Amino acid sequence: VQLQASGGGSVQAGGSLRLSCAASGFTLDEFAIGWFRRAPGKEREGVSCFSSSNGSTYYADSVKGRFTISRDNAKNTVYLQMNSLKPEDTAVYSCAAPHYYCSGGLYWGKGTQVTVSS
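and the corresponding structure tokens:
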């Protein structure tokens, strides 16, 4: 099982980024993928996850209305579209699968840095 996150970068507040999490060794129907982030000095936060039971989506309150999780089964890839970025979104973003109620995961990909400047 491998997960590879990419797409991070530096943007100004109000900008957008799209993160990708490419999975191998399993299909998106077998393991639900979630996005997590860890900001400096803060605990890891579940940002957005697909439900393993019905494919529904979960968003942390802090990103609702700004972030959108999506998937491409053909590419075995999950995306996180991040719009209206704020400085407080600055963190290392990682994907994990399967996730545990969007609070943690079994397999983790290497994180990608997102930096939002004011």
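(Above: one complete record from the training split.) DSSP finds no helices and eleven strands in the chain.
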